[in-house]
Automatic annotation (TrEMBL):
InterPro entries (alphabetical): Bact_solute-bd_prot1, SBP, TAT_signal
Source organism superkingdom: Bacteria
Designated name of the protein: Extracellular solute-binding protein
Entry keyword set: Signal
SUPFAM superfamilies in UniProt: Periplasmic binding protein-like II
Residues annotated as signal peptide: 1-34
Length: 461
């Protein structure tokens, strides 16, 4: 499966309890300087005053509690400033920011995904100078996982997003059903289809339950991952589209066929978040999701212990190559922000102890894309230690080798709007449940994508 050692994982095996991943002396010094008021640990305001409007996508109470710890530290060190935090879900941002731009109510600091932030940058709504100087204050390039910014947060030389954490999507499966079918853990596209057929027993349970709801972008993610597994792309950073390519056609045919033969029709209304329930109630034998899905099972009271013990995962199946898809949950600074306050709040959020506590607030939800984490403390968390050699190692390898959806050739201004338009979800549903032929469905999808690409190209020009 082309699994290479992840720098974070390799460093964990070689470092001491107190060492921070990848932080040389210069980077450590830079982080220490960034932590102080200019020093950060100074209890004076350091010239930082006014409210800091902070948008974040963290709805869970445990994550919000860790954010509040950071807010309290920030406000204690800067008595003239206050944090106004607002929960803005990932899917709400594409509609939310244009209205905020018009109304002059953009936040000072925000967290979302690069696919949603890049269109803001194209529209001139991101202060890349402020973000670039924040990168330097944090310690520069050594503060981030090697290559991560260039792959997932830089467009034409400008940094528009820096990672708060990362994850990677996996093929999660029921090991008990796999064993009962006499099959090995799937590695290839053909393996996954064979496993889906063998673990399909409708209406009790289905081989592979896909999130194809048009209220979500799960189908778009699936199409991109399987297209990447075939060695192809949906659209490149210049706007060239590949809906008519053999690689995209094979992915569309594959997903439509498996969804119709080995999945429930309820996949048409299943969103990414619903895969938790589908997997944990026993109705799904396989789902594509992150390691967080297994983490939820281990922390949910009342689930059958044998079911929980049977949940496991592996890499997204390979065709000519693995289809790793990285999730980067990233920070940015919009234009006209209170930059001084945004910088100081961001630096508190990235302090090693604050950042580590956030990553471990829901173990296996968050994986580091920065180098400020005590590796022994991270891997020593009991649930992470339990899955260290399986879904944790696979997640870290995927983060190292993969990219954000559509960013395989670097940040791509077209992929976010195409995914958000639900073109892929409509196409897969047309093939799987609507009786439409693959070529007709692809032609329909290409026409819808053409309009989006033309609009984005006019904005860029």
């Amino acid at each position: 499966m082309n699994q290479q050692p992840n720098p974070f994982h390799a460093m964990h095996r070689a470092t001491s309890r107190r060492s921070f991943l990848g932080l040389g002396l210069a980077a450590t010094a830079g982080l220490a300087t960034a932590s102080c008021s200019s020093d950060g640990n100074d209890t004076t305001d350091g010239g930082v005053t006014g409210d800091v409007v902070f948008w974040h996508p963290y709805g869970q109470e445990t994550r919000q509690a860790e954010l509040q710890v950071a807010f309290d530290i920030f406000e204690e060190e800067h008595p003239g400033a206050r944090v106004q935090a607002e929960y803005v879900p990932f899917g709400d941002l594409p509609l939310r920011w244009p209205a905020a731009q018009q109304g002059g109510t953009l936040p000072d600091l925000m967290i979302n995904i690069p696919e949603n932030i890049l269109p803001m940058h194209i529209a001139g709504v991101i202060d890349t100078d402020a973000l670039g100087s924040l990168v330097e204050e944090l310690g520069g390039e050594p503060f981030f996982a090697p290559g991560f910014l260039d792959k997932n947060g830089r467009y034409q030389g400008d940094t528009f997003a820096i990672p708060h954490y990362a994850h990677n999507r996996l093929m999660l499966y029921r090991s008990d059903r796999l064993a009962a079918a006499g099959l090995e853990v799937p590695e290839t596209l053909a393996d996954v289809e064979e496993c889906a057929a063998a673990m399909n027993n409708p209406p009790d349970f289905f081989g592979w339950t896909m999130p194809l709801s048009q209220n979500d972008i799960g189908g778009g993610y699936l199409l991109w991952m399987i297209t990447r597994s075939n060695g192809g792309s949906l659209v490149d950073p210049e706007g060239n589209q590949f809906w008519a390519s053999d690689e995209v056609r094979a992915a569309a045919d594959y997903l439509g066929r498996i969804a119709s033969q080995y999945g429930p029709t309820s996949a048409a209304t299943t969103a990414i978040g619903d895969t938790f329930n589908r997997f944990h109630d026993g109705t799904a034998s396989m789902v594509v999701d992150t390691a967080a899905n297994i983490a939820v099972a281990n922390s949910t009271e009342g689930l059958d212990p044998e079911l929980v013990a049977s949940l496991n995962g592996t890499h997204i199946p390979a065709g000519t190559q693995p289809g790793h898809m990285v999730g980067s949950v990233a920070m940015t600074i919009p234009v006209d922000a209170n930059v001084a306050a945004a910088h100081e709040l961001a630096k508190v959020l990235y302090r090693p102890e604050v950042h580590l506590d956030f990553l471990l607030s829901i173990p296996m939800f968050h994986f580091p894309a920065t180098t400020n984490i005590d590796t022994d403390a991270f891997f020593g968390e009991p649930l992470i230690a339990q899955y260290k050699d399986t879904v944790v190692a696979q997640t870290l390898a995927g983060i190292d080798e993969g990219s954000v959806a559509g960013f395989e050739d670097g940040p791509n201004p077209f992929i976010g709007p195409i995914l958000d338009a639900k073109i892929s979800e409509v196409m897969i549903q047309d093939i799987a449940f609507g009786g439409m032929g693959v070529d007709a469905a692809l032609e329909k999808a290409a026409a819808a994508a053409d309009e989006i690409v033309a609009r984005i190209q006019s904005q860029i020009s």
